[in-house]
Amino acid sequence: MTSFLDPDFSLERHLAPPAAGSSAALELAPQVSSLPPSYVDEHLVEPEAREEMVRGRRDRDRADDAVVRALDAKGTPRLAMIRTQASIETACKLLDIPVDSSRRQYLDALDLRGLRTLLTHLETERCWP
Predict the structure, then answer these.
(1) In angstroms, rounded to a whole number, what is the distance separating the alpha carbons of residues 2 and 22?
(2) Residues 34 and 10: beta-carbon distance below 8 Å
(3) What's the per-residue H, E or C state across the chain?
(4) Dihedral Cα 36, 42, 45, 48, nearest 10 deg
(5) C-alpha torsion 89→94→98→100, nearest 10
(6) What is the chain's mean pLDDT, rounded?
(7) What is the pLDDT of residues 20-76, one digit of tens each?
């Protein structure tokens, strides 16, 4: 077994996990797939490839933004519901009203009109109905 005092010892080396009943060493470094993307980009990807990955992420973000803007311009009710629900959650947070699982289920069951009514109630009464 290799010791950390051995000059050939490396924490970066991946060792296979031990088989059942084996005394082999465990893996000393995480798999690349378990590392956060920023670590992988910064430490394990060539700079040219990293620039291409960043460009791809920016393009995806721009495309997502364009879709949201188009849905907003179209007046999509679901987007209005998401925004109203977020406003309700923000109001509850500011008013110190906990949003537990039963209240979240209640919110999920409401349509846009119900959500707007609840938001108005929170704004005027400052309490959960």
Answers:
(1) 16
(2) no
(3) CCCCCCCCCCCCCCCCCCCCCCCCCCCCCCCHHHCCHHHHHHHHCCHHHHHHHHHHHHHHHHHHHHHHHHHHHHCCHHHHHHHHHHHHHHHHHHCCCCCCHHHHHHHHHCCHHHHHHHHHHHHHHCCCC
(4) 130
(5) 10
(6) 77
(7) 555 444 444 555 555 555 555 555 567 677 677 778 888 888 888 888 889 889 989
